[in-house]
Amino acid sequence: MMAHGTMQRFVDREQAYPAKRSAEERARDFREIADRYDTDTARKQSARCSQCGVPFCSVHCPLHNHIPDWLRLTAEGRVREAYELSNSTSTMPEICGRICPQDRLCEGNCVTEFTGHGAITIGAVEKFITDTAWDEGWVEPLHAGPARGQSVGVIGAGPAGLSGAEYLRAAGYEVHVYDRYDRLGGLLTYGIPSFKLEKYVIDRRIERLREGGIVFHENFEVGRDATLEQLRTRHDAILVATGVYKPRAIRAPGVGSAGVVEALDYLIASNRKSYGDAVPAFDDGRLDAAGKRVVVIGGGDTAMDCVRTAIRQGASSVKCLYRRDRANMPGSQREVGNAEQEGVEFVWLSGPVAFDAEGDDAAGAVTGVRAQRMRLGPPDASGRRAPEPDPGNTFVEPADLVIKALGFDAEDLPVMFDAPELGVTRWGTLLVDRRMMTNLDGVFAAGDIVRGASLVVWAIRDGRDVSETMHDWLKAKAVSDAARERAAA
What we know:
By secondary structure, the chain is an alpha/beta fold.
């Protein structure tokens, strides 16, 4: 039962997010921008929860986390129990607390927000609970269940692959994870900057999985080091969780100019530098924004990561061109606010039509982005108003470095994996049935490679869901294999 008087303090207690470091200070480093709650503040902010009858925060959380329950436990000072409840539905609660767009999910649907008193600060409390659990030693090792004598191969060590691997290992399977990069974590490691997610947060999660007996194969490319078919013969089931890495292209004159780069190339270089790696394309200046006029094209969270990275690298100016207005952009409004505080200028309702470069050489250094002013027409299929050109209204934005952040599509996995029979949709994502299995028996898929570019929290949810259907399928396979062996004997 709820302790009398502990909760529903939203009327007499102001919403208070953890204090952010000043824009001037945080723009000089790659540390996370906000402090963590102390225990007293976490209790007080959790106590603002109205404990409403239908918790829209949980309904709108892809993981359906038990948010009001762990807020109540935190308010009552029962932080270890709050952690255990939070951990029961999520394999990465402190990561979601840092990088989920809470303003679009749990907090954006908070009943207290609707009453005009400001949403409960769910993400900040979620981060506090699990960071405290790590500090206090409450995070349990990954305990593998009784060995089943079956093995699973997971392709991709991003959030979907790691989440699925954890649940399958806990169920007693031998689990091997194959990833093409030299570090694990996928976009958590190489796509998201440290000022949103410091790397030790991911590293300690992966270390826990390694200590739990999951075998990781870094620098392993399916198609180069083994075909999909060879992995199928090596394991009883396969989970494909590669994510989507193919950048969407801009078709415009001058797009091949030197200094026009892909968002992911830029972010990976920056993240590698934070690990202390030698990165030739950064070290020679090509992927370093220092002293440059930077223009980022796009309005999603990747674009926000790029503009805020460029500020920290010491760009002389940073502008973001987006073809819709602020209200119709896909990225987190909080991230836009953080970027503006740090000195980014947004040029709304503008789209690139050409890239100007030095000389006549197609690969000359970029000097500017020729852009077309846009206006918003009627809503498109997604409900957002579609941009259309405003004829005769063009301008040039000077630039020394242009970063294309227009989103990602699926790579051609049937070709990459040397598996032409693997079924894909017209968008290149993997075709799966209700069990999340592809058209190849025992080959499952989860995360962005199924749903298209999406949120980390959805990838974690997919990893959880696919582990259940794989578990059922593997149990049935074990029974039929045993029956076949008996018949053969």
